[in-house]
Amino acid sequence: MxxxxxxxxxxxxxxxxxxxxLIMTILSPLIMIALITVVVYLSQMNxxxxxxxxxxxxxxxxxxxxxxxxxTTYNILxxxxxxxxxxxxxxxxxxxxxxxxxxxxxxxxxxxVQFYSEDSPSLSVISSLENKIxxxxxxxxxxxxxxxxxxxxxSKIKIDISQENFSxxxxxKIDSVVKLAFGGAAGYLLFMFIIIYxxxxxxxxxxxxxxxxxxxxxxxxxxxQLMLGKIIGTSLAGITQFVIWIILGGVLLTVVSAxxxxxxxxxxxPQQELMRQAMENPDASMKVQSLFTAFYNLPLANLVIAFxxxxxxxxxxxxxxxxxxxxxxxxxxxxxxxxxPILMPLILAVYVGMFTVIEDPHGTVxxxxxxxxxxxxxxxxxxxxFGVPIWQQIVSLLLLIGTFLxxxxxxxxxxxxxxxxxxxxxxxxxxxKWIKY
Amino acid sequence: MSNLLEVHNVSKKFGDFTAxxxxxxxxxxxxxxxxxxxxxxxxxxxxxxxNQITMPDHGHVLLDGxxxxxxxxxxxxxxxxxxxxxxxxxxxxxxxxxxxxxxMQKSEAKKRLKMWFERLEIGDWWNKKIQELSKGMAQKIQFxxxxxHEPKLLIFDEPFSGFDPINANLxxxxxxxxxxxxxxxxxxxxxxxxxxxxxxxxxxxxKSNKVLDGNLMDVKRQYKTNTFQIGIKPNNSTLEQELAxxxxxxxxxxxxxxxxxxxxxxxxxxxxxxxxxxxxxxQGQISHFVEVIPSANxxxxxxxxxx
Lengths: 437, 307
Description:
The structure holds two protein chains of two kinds. By secondary structure, chain A is mainly α.
C-alpha cells in the first residue's frame, strides 16, 4: 500500500472514531431540529393567540369592516367618550383600542385614526387594521364620488410576464426562486464545509506538532504527501459526517413534524415569502408542476459537474492554507492572526453572493468576483443556476486550479519548514523567508 | 565498500544562518558512530540531511555507495530527539502504521512487533492508548518502531533520555546486539560516558563545522598528553620537590591503601614512561602507575574551547 493511502486511511479512521466527532455527528442534527421545532412552535403559538381589539368608531363609516375572526375579536364600543373607552379597554385587558374620529370630508381623513395600547402593537396587526380601514373608506369615497366599484373591479387586468431567452428557453419568476435556492445552498454548503473541516485539518496538524511525532513521520514520508493525506482524509470524514447529518436531519424532521403536527413550511422566512409571492397566481396543482418545471429548467448537468469541480478545488485551496497555518504555529491560540486573511475573502464571497448575485447574477460585480480565485468557488456556484456561459466557467475554473496549485506549493513549503519549528510564533516576514529555504 | 555512509562536503544555510559548513563524515559499516557537539552545532541538521528531511544546499550523501534516493528511507531507522506518538492512538495500531510507512507489509510488521514486544516485556500494552503510558514506556515503543524494519543504518538522537537506569541498560544492550547483527549505528548524545562505553568512531561538530573525527582510540592517542598518574611511598621526604624540579607535576586524586604520594607527572616529548619508572623504582615503593588517557569528555571540552 502506498504512503498516501495509508495516511488518508489513518486520518479518516482517527477522525471518525474520535468521541467528540461521533457525538457531534449524532447530536448536531438533534440540536438543530430541536431548535427549529421550538422556534416554529413558538411562532405558531404567537400567531394563534386570541386578540381582542376594541373599536370606537365616531365616524360610523368603518364599523362594518371589523368582522371578528378566529384569532381576532373586534369589540365595537358605542356611546362612550374616548377617555371612558380607554379605561374600559385597560380594565378588560384588551390588546388595544382603535379610535376613529368623526370624518367630515374624505380628503381630510389623514390623522383621524389612532391606535392606543399598553405595549407597542405588532406590525402585522397595525397593517391589517390599516388595510381594512383603507379598503372600507376607499369604497365609501368612491360611492360618494359616484364611481361604480363593480366597473372598476371588472376592468382590472392582471399581467404575468412570461420570460424567454434568445435561444428559446422559457422561465418564470418561480424559476428564479428555485435557481436562487440552488445556488445559495451550494455556495453556503461550500462555505460551511471550508470553515468546519479547514479548522479540523489545522487542529490535526497542530496535534502532530505538539505530540512531536512529526519528525518520525516525515523521516518516512514527504511532507507534501502528509499534508495532502491529511486534507483528503479529513475531507472524507467530513463528507461522511455531512451525509449522516442530512439523512438524520431529514428523518428527524419528518418524525417531529408528524408527531407534533408542526408544519415547517409555515415558518416564514423572507425567502419563502418571495416564493409565496412568485406562486401567488396558480392553484395548488399548478404550483407543484411549476416547481418541477423550474427544476428541470435548471442546467442540471452543468450544475452537478460545476458543483463538483468548484467545490473540490475551492475546498482544497482553502484547506491547504489551513494546513499551512497549522504547521506555522505551535498551538491553537496562535492561529488567530493568520485566520483573518483566510476568512476575509470567504466572508466577502458569501456577501457578494447573497446581495449581488440575487440582485443581478450577470452584473459586473458578480462576474468579477466569480473570476477571482478566492471568491470564485462560492460566487460562481451561486451564479451557475442562472446560466453562465461555459467559457466563463472554464476560465474561472482554470484560474482557480492555477491558484490552488500555487497555494498547495506555497503551503507545502511553509508546512515543510514549519512542522519542524518549535517555540516561537512566526511573523509573516518569517513565513516568506521559509518559502526560500 | 567498508563505509556504509559517506557525507561529502555538505553545506546548509537557513537564510543568513549557516547550519552546516562543508561537513564530511564517513561512517564505517558495523560501527557505532558518535556524532557529538554542543547544542545548536548542527548535529540535528546533519541527521535530517541524512534522513532526506532537509535538502542540503551543497554536497552529497552516499548510502552504501549510492546517492540518497527515496527508497533509502527503508534502510534508515531514525529516533529523533524531539519524539512523540499520536496520543489517542492505540500502541499496536500506531506501531503497525509507522512500520507500514517504512514500507513493511502489515503481516510481517505484526509478526516482528509481537516478537519485540515479548522481548521487551511489553506485550500487554498492545491495546493501550499512548496517553495511558508513562514517558519511559512510550520511549520503549518508539525504540521498537525505529528498529522494527531492520534498517542498515540506525540513527539515535539522545536515545537514553527519559529512561531509568534499568531500561537505559536494556536499550543499550539492544543497540549493541543490533550492531552485532550487522547494523551500523549513528549515535548523537551529550552523555559522554555512553560515548566512552559504546562508540568506536566519533565526529565532533562545532559551530556548523566538523572539528574532529576518527576512530575513538586514534583520537585519544592524538589527544594524549604523555601524562602518568603515580602512587609512591617515598624513601625520603624530599622526593616531591625533586620530582617537581625534574618534571611538570600536579597533585592527583585516586584511592590507595596507604598514605602514598599521589601525583600526575607530565613528560616531555623525548622522555618515555620507562625512564620515569626506572627513576621512580629507586625512590620508594611504587603502588600505582597508569597512563592518563584523555576521556571523551576532556576531548569534547578541550576541542570546543579551542575553537
